Amino acid sequence: LTKAREPLPLAAVYFIQPTTTSVTQLLEDFIDVPLYPSVHIFFSSKAPSAVINKLKSCEVLLGVLKTLKECNVEFLTVDSRTVVTDNPHAPMLLMGDQADRAAQEGDQELDTIASRLTTLLSTLSEFPVVRFKKGRPVGSRDPPGANARSSLTKRLAQKVLERADAMQKAGQLPAKESCDLLILDRSYDSVAPVIHEWTYECMVHDLLELEGNTFRYSVESTQGKTDEKEVLLDEGDNLWSELRHTFIAEVYSSLADRFKEFQSKNKAAKLGGAGLKGEMSNSSIRQLIVALPQFREVLGKLSLHIQISSDLRSVTNEHILTDVGELEQDLVLGDKHSKDLITFLQENQANMDRLDKVRLFMCYCATHPEKLDTVKLTQWQKLAGLRKEDMTAVCSLALLGVSVFKQPDISEKSGFFNKKKEKPEATRRKKPEDGGYALFRFDPLLKDIVSDLGAHRLPEDEFPYLRAPSSGVASDSASTAQSARTGGRQGLPWAKRDGANGATRGPAARRLIVFVIGGVVRSEMRVAHELSKSMGRDIILASTSVETPRTFIDALYQMNSTGSDFGA
């Protein structure tokens, strides 16, 4: 809209947000003479009356306007089970230390999120049973912004249900609850965004430099020149889709096996690669492509993922990430403690990346509450060779409800009987099917929460309903967990309702939507895919954004505007 354009004798299609800014920009194309002979305008969500009136005021536009429609599509798809509302500043505005003071800005951000989330419900033609994770009670020692954080999930739940009710009354959503919507915020699991995840997709987005889903790399051409290439790593790549949620050791093995299998099954490959001795490398694949141009596409995909896996192996070795990752999981699962952490840093900190040290401290603090004091904080900073702002980022976990610092002795006792107050248990359970991999023992808490919700055992005191479900809906939800069907719907493309009259589907098809304020990470996206298969339910993971460990830690910096350590 902001770019200057020449008049064209073609119909114009405008897909814009129904904001005063967007409409004002659009009207500049129709000041005196229309740029186009006919115009079709599609709003991404419901247009307020002020915007409609502004359009009506332009007679030049009205003379060529052919279509004006509200589409209710204000979300972005990341993959077939993940969508975002594109609110990257939500952590700072809604969960930061200024959240109480900037209540108006926060409320505006919540309105935007609620409107965009409601367009997802509209697109899927779902009316939700809404539940939310109850906020922590505000304590006297909580960091600033605690009041806003404590009510955050409930406030969003209320705004979403208000909009869904209005759309239901207008006949745009089903008359009866047809899906489950669970609203969380990032404080529900502060470990998943920082721990190293060892599946293929997570490692690629964590360790390699990507722009969105675009991977850029260099290859040597058949003439010996270096060519720069870029490729999208998305569900259009079948090999990527097959391997993305696989543990990295199995990815390495799978790629090697595929290369050997290709050579063994193709006589031409044997002849073309006679001098290669079965070596799996980009050099050997380039020779095969020259000898066998008919296999260019197959070998090209294989070459791409061999390149990626090779880059991952190099980064892992350079920063001793195998050792770091194993210690992270030992700390999180309660198998090792601060002494082991200190010993590891004394022996290895010179070979570690700065961000990896910060992540290691975060893994420890998030699962070992109330272990730090200001003296220990300074000692650990010096031991790890970190900056003060790095340790401030660790302390900023307090904004996610983590009790980083030791509490005064008075808090150790409570009640008239002077009983010792129990500290919360924060270590994680080991996954039962770890397969023997030391680096594959951790799962995000999302897996337990969604499994419990699907099995109808999610505690209502911790995850209350915003409004009690209609008669029969709760029992439908319970029966869903026991009747996983074969060949169920597969994510976002399946938005149509059963029957011509828009009747609700049976309980076995009941969709489950989880929305996380403050961003999700790729390991949680993996969980959504895995549970959709194992539970036989269509699970959609939605959030304000998708974060990497680096962007999550950057968000923590922004949330802590004063640079406080929130200590004793």
What does it look like?
This protein is of the alpha/beta class. The chain contains 22 helices and 13 strands. It has helices spanning about 20-25, 50-55, 60, 90-95, 105-125, 145-150, 150-170, 200-205, 240-245, 250-265, 265-270, 280-290, 295-320, 320-330, 340-350, 355-365, 375-385, 390-395, 445-455, 475-480, 520-535, 550-560, and strands at about 10-15, 40-45, 65-70, 75-80, 80-85, 130, 180-185, 215-220, 225-230, 415, 420, 510-515, 540-545. Strands 4-5-13-12-7-6 form a 6-stranded mixed beta sheet, with helices on both faces. The protein has a 3-stranded parallel beta sheet with strand order 1-2-3, with helices on one face. α5 crosses α7 (about 150-170). The chain is globular and about 75 Å long. The model is unreliable at about 270-280, about 410-425, about 475-490 and about 495-505 (pLDDT under 50).
